[in-house]
């Protein structure tokens, strides 16, 4: 009833709140397409006519900060999240099904790991990587990502596994399928929405991480786009056009990635809990 | 099945992409026998093109060296060098990294007297009498740059000669609704707020006790002693009277300079490197320069000499690395570039700056030369390196403390004892 | 020269004997899991236990061992610039007790975590209820609210710095509206911490919106209608029907927000560097990194890290317990 009488109110309020919320992002997007000289006097004005100068300046940097960073970021993110999805699905499945005390202990230990900021243990992590001979390598960074983000993957998968009926697994096993096949062909496909959430979240976090690659990759083996953003801030300082263009380009791939997977994402995140 | 194919594809794709990094900077003239890494930092003035050209010039003089350029993620190259060292990857050659800590721990190679014959101040920044960073240039810190239009508007005809004059000038500007000082230091650029204090410490502490920090190390003096507290009090008073706008504390270094250019304040106490920026990119008003005045008008010229390259003791070929570092810092064209882009005053014997330098740079160099003539050169507080400098990390702490001084959260006395506490912590 | 060698030995030594026992520990644990797994009552979990291993190993090697090393360092005076490393017992912890800066960083972290958790939860729920309609407009708005979640904290920091500095966009707007002295959002020591908390809240808001929306859509229509036929008012309907159904969403959001709040580091590093002034916006993570990398006091920073880890672990266990109990009883 209320909805009828105030039908104009809800969209109005929603659009207004959304617009205020979006304002800071709007400022970035318009200024990417504006000549540098116009940004400070008219920060909020529309870019008319729009220019691609800022974007092409970033793409054609002589030091290839963006291009190399992009390739490294894609490599690190793709490898890390693929491995993470598989490993945390397996671990999450085990922990959700097991009733043993040891599994409970492992679960609590993993959950504690969720709230540890990387910077706090970064110094000893470099020590471990040095011992393994993996310091300043992409492989080392990927492994650290895997270890550090496993708890989050496990948390999501555990919630979801509980909503998958045990009978399915048992039936498959009665048919004589090996454990590997049961997991890979029965369990894992059922966890698809959770996998989407894990891929998106960890993809976003790993892509956006800046301190870990900054320290673990060091300066020689190139850098990631997010470290590139940080570096571009120092180089250009108040040249907002250049900084915003770099930020815009560095964000675009991960945004596209999110949009591609978003349908499954909410279901996976809440699927186990909200519906179960 | 399809899933695992996709998985394989992604993995191979990713593996194939592994290890893409920056290629070593081109060094066409070298034979490329030894590869040395060189850590530089980029700013709007000292950009990638500048470093590449300067590196190529030095490499042309030292055959057998290939330089791999490494770039710091922000201007805090000393912090980054520490992080690299902590992970076992200290670069072979370092540009403008404070050697404090590195030198004492034996991580840097010392330059011999013979190697330093071309330097005007071959002992500047020495650690236990040894030089770990080439003293290639001098900076006057601070110089007070001022907006001539704003001074004229406030009816000020003469630059201040004594500290009282400076306060009078500030009062006049304030009366005309012009903020007297632009002081910044937001975000990672907290260091930018140090310059008024560097000025007052020079006039009120170092003029009397040039080796104050050495005495502090030996426990003979304290920051809480009267002289230093008075220097801090002066800064606190400037803020209290509204001569320094605390709003500056959210401005990054670049924004601070922009604020001065936009006329948001009449005086800009800054290092001498601002001179060429002012000349190269002139604001809409004329800029003048005067030294930070002392109470009775006796000249005091706080300077820092050093700031050049250092060589890691674990470089693959230390001698060659040192040779390259010397070539880099002594090269006439490199110094011309530093002068033109970064307003440095090279401390190399026989060096003369390009003749076409602008008026603000000329005025700045004149202040330095006057200081040499008056024999009024002292250290620039918090900028020192080597013996008689602040222990590692303390310069950052003092910059944060200065913010409290400006916002009034700490009194001058609190600030001084805070520094004493931090000193104790840093050296425990 | 001999001194140098001494120095590097001093750095490496404490690490070496530590790692082997911990490695051994993980092997032992792995063996234990396998042994027990093979003797299980449910045979089907036997191999799945094996599947659990790689993830656990990665976690042990790159998180638990470093935590163990941190714990060990916290009893030493480890400083790479001041070798050799010596055992100092509880001295670092004793020093922490009187360390004003660390106490402030701790308080700041808790303030940020609480503000972010409360405001993003409340704001997220309100906006989710506002957007709980299936038309295109609301779906698009949902996307807008979620965008910041996808952005890097570095990018968010740069954007908000441009908005909140004293001559920034917000204050220009306020001046245009006739406010002569708009607040120094980042330069006023009394405000800066709240500005930082706001920035993190803004970034996480969209996450809460999406999770609450999923929760709201899980509330069966029939229940709502039944309640309104019974004559329940809007508030009562929300309290008795909707809110209990949102318990799992609340758990997810609270855990995520606490994680984000306790980890706050990037924003501090980019926007305030812990200032304005000494430690006004410093968080625990920031304080640890500063002490470790700028002051080189690895021993002391490890003690800070250890305190932080214990605190964080306690909070996360308590919060999870509380929220899950609520889910079960509902």
UniProtKB/TrEMBL annotation, chain A:
GO biological process: transmembrane transport
Main localization category: membrane
Protein location: Cell membrane
UniProt entry tagged with the keyword Cell membrane: yes
One cellular component (GO) term of this entry: plasma membrane
Membrane topology field: Multi-pass membrane protein
Protein's UniProt name: Sugar ABC transporter permease
Species per Swiss-Prot/TrEMBL record: Planotetraspora silvatica
From TrEMBL, chain B:
Entries under Gene3D superfamilies matching the protein: Periplasmic binding protein-like II (3.40.190.10)
Domain of life: Bacteria
Coiled-coil features, chain-numbered ranges: none
UniProt-listed SUPFAM superfamilies: Periplasmic binding protein-like II
Metal-binding in keyword set: no
Pfam family for this entry, one: SBP_bac_8
Family, similarity comment: Belongs to the bacterial solute-binding protein 1 family.
Protein name: ABC transporter substrate-binding protein
Origin organism lineage: Bacteria, Bacillati, Actinomycetota, Actinomycetes, Streptosporangiales
Automatic annotation (TrEMBL), chain C:
Segments forming a coiled coil: none
Any GO CC annotation of this UniProt entry: plasma membrane
Subcellular location: Cell membrane
UniProt KW Cell membrane keyword: yes
InterPro entries per record: ABC_transporter_permease (IPR051393), MetI-like (IPR000515), MetI-like_sf (IPR035906)
Pfam families for this protein: BPD_transp_1
Regions crossing the membrane: 50-75, 105-131, 143-163, 191-214, 243-262, 303-323
Topology in the lipid bilayer: Multi-pass membrane protein
Domain of life: Bacteria
Keyword flag Metal-binding: no
Gene Ontology BP terms: transmembrane transport
Domain ABC transmembrane type-1: 106-319
Region spans: Disordered: 1-31
Basic and acidic residues compositional bias, start-end: 1-12
This protein's UniProt keywords: Cell membrane, Membrane, Transmembrane, Transmembrane helix, Transport
Protein family membership: Belongs to the binding-protein-dependent transport system permease family.
Protein's name in the database: Sugar ABC transporter permease
Protein species of origin: Planotetraspora silvatica
């Amino acid at each position: 009833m209320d909805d009828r009488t105030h039908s104009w109110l809800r969209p109005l309020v929603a659009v207004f709140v959304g617009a205020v919320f979006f304002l800071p992002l709007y400022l970035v997007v318009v200024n990417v397409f504006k000549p540098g000289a116009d940004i400070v006097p008219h920060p909020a004005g529309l870019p008319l006519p729009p220019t691609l100068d800022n974007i092409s300046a970033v793409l054609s940097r002589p030091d290839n900060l963006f291009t190399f960073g992009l390739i490294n970021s894609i490599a690190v993110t793709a490898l890390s999240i693929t491995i993470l999805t598989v490993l945390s699905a397996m671990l999450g499945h085990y922990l959700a099904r097991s009733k043993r005390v040891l599994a409970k202990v492992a679960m609590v230990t993993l959950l504690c790991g969720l709230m540890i900021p990387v910077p706090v243990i970064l110094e000893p992590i470099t020590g471990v990587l040095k011992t393994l001979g993996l310091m300043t390598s992409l492989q080392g960074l990927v492994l650290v990502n895997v270890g550090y983000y496993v708890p989050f993957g496990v948390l999501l998968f555990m919630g979801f596994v509980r909503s998958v009926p045990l009978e399915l697994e048992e039936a498959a096993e009665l048919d004589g399928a090996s454990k590997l096949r049961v997991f890979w062909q029965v369990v894992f496909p059922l966890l698809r929405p959770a996998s989407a959430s894990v891929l998106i979240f960890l993809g976003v976090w790993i892509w956006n991480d800046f301190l870990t690659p900054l320290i673990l990759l060091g300066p020689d083996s190139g850098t990631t786009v997010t470290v590139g953003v940080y570096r571009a801030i120092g180089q250009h300082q108040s040249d907002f056009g250049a900084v915003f263009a770099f930020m815009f380009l560095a964000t675009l791939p991960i945004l596209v990635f999110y949009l591609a997977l978003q349908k499954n994402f909410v279901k996976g995140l809440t699927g186990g809990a909200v519906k179960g | 099945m399809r899933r695992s194919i996709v998985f394989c594809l992604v993995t191979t794709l990713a593996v194939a992409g592994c290890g893409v990094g920056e290629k070593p900077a081109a060094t066409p003239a070298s034979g490329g026998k030894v590869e040395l890494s060189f850590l530089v930092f980029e700013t709007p003035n000292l950009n990638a093109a500048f470093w590449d050209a300067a590196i190529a010039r030095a490499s042309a003089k030292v055959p057998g060296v290939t330089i791999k350029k490494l770039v710091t993620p922000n201007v805090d190259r000393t912090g980054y060098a520490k992080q690299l060292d902590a992970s076992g990857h200290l670069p072979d050659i370092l540009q403008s990294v404070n050697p404090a800590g590195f030198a004492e721990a034996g991580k840097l190679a010392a330059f011999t007297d013979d190697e330093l014959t071309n330097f005007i101040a071959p002992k500047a920044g020495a650690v236990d009498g040894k030089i770990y960073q080439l003293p290639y240039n001098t900076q006057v810190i601070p110089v007070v740059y001022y907006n001539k239009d704003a001074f004229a508007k406030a009816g000020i005809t003469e630059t201040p000669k004594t500290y009282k004059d400076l306060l009078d000038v500030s009062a006049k500007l304030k009366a005309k609704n012009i903020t007297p000082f632009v002081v910044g230091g937001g975000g990672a650029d907290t260091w930018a707020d140090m310059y008024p204090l560097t000025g007052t410490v020079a006039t009120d502490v170092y003029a009397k006790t040039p080796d104050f920090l050495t005495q502090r190390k030996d426990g003979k003096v304290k920051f809480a002693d009267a002289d230093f507290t008075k220097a801090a009090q002066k800064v606190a008073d400037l803020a209290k009277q509204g001569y320094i706008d605390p709003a500056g504390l959210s401005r990054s270094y670049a924004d601070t300079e922009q604020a001065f250019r936009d006329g948001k304040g009449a005086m800009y106490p800054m290092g001498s490197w601002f001179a060429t920026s002012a000349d190269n990119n002139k604001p809409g008003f004329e800029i003048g320069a005067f030294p930070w005045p002392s109470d009775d008008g006796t000249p005091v010229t706080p300077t820092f000499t050093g700031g050049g390259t250092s060589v890691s003791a674990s470089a693959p070929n230390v001698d060659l690395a040192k040779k390259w570092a010397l070539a880099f810092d002594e090269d006439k064209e490199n110094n011309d570039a530093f002068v033109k882009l970064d307003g440095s005053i090279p401390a190399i014997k026989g060096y003369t700056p390009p003749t076409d330098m602008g008026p603000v740079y000329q005025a700045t160099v004149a202040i330095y030369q006057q200081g040499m003539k008056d024999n009024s050169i002292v250290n620039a507080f918090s900028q020192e390196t080597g013996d008689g400098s602040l222990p590692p990390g303390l310069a950052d702490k003092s910059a944060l403390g200065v913010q409290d001084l400006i916002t009034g959260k700490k009194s001058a006395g609190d600030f001084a004892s805070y520094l004493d506490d931090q000193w104790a912590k840093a050296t425990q | 020269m001999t001194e140098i060698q001494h120095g590097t030995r001093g750095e490496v030594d404490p690490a070496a004997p530590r790692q082997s026992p911990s490695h051994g520990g993980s092997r032992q644990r792995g063996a234990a899991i396998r042994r027990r797994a093979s003797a299980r009552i449910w045979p089907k979990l036997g191999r799945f236990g094996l599947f659990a291993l790689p993830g656990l190993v990665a976690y042990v090697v790159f998180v638990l061992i470093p935590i163990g090393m941190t714990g060990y360092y916290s009893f030493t005076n480890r400083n790479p610039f001041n070798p050799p490393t010596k055992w100092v017992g509880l001295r670092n912890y004793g020093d922490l007790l009187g360390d004003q800066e660390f106490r402030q960083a701790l308080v700041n972290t808790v303030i940020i975590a609480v503000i972010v958790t409360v405001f993003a939860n409340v704001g997220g729920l309100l906006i989710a209820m506002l957007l709980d309609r299936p038309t295109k407009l609301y779906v698009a708005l949902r996307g807008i609210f979620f965008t910041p979640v996808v952005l890097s904290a570095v990018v968010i920091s740069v954007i908000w710095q441009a908005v909140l500095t004293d001559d920034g966009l917000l204050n220009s707007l306020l001046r245009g509206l006739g406010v002569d002295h708009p607040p120094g959002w980042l330069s006023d020591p009394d405000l800066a911490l709240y500005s930082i908390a706001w920035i993190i809240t803004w970034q996480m808001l969209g996450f809460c919106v999406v999770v609450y929306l999923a929760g709201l859509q899980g509330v069966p229509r029939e229940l709502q209608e039944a309640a309104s036929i019974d004559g329940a008012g809007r508030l009562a309907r929300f309290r008795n029907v909707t809110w209990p159904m949102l318990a799992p969403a609340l758990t997810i959001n609270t855990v995520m927000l606490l994680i984000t709040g306790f980890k706050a580091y990037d924003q501090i590093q980019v926007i305030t560097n812990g200032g304005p002034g000494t430690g006004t916006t410093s968080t625990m993570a920031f304080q640890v990194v500063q002490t470790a990398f700028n002051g080189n006091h690895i021993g002391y920073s490890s003690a800070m890290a250890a305190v932080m880890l214990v605190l964080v672990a306690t909070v996360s266990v308590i919060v999870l317990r509380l929220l899950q109990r609520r889910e079960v009883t509902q």
